[in-house]
Design brief:
The protein contains two helices and four strands; from the N terminus they run E-H-E-E-H-E. With 61 residues, it is an alpha+beta fold.
Amino acid sequence: MYLVAVDAAKCEGCEECVNNCPVTVFDFVDSKAVAERAGDCEGCQTCTAVCSSGAVTLTEM
C-alpha cells in the first residue's frame, strides 16, 4: 500500500501529475493538484517523476 500526498504550498498547478497518473489518483481543485483517490495509488512513482516542484510525495506503508 502507498500513501501519496500533494503539498499545496509547493504545487505550481502544472497538472502533470493529474495528466500522467495511470490510475487517476489526482484531481485539479482551485488551481492545485489534490490526491482525491490516494488509496488507489499503485506506487508507480510517475507523479513524483513528473512533478518539477517536488510537491508530490509517495510513501510505502
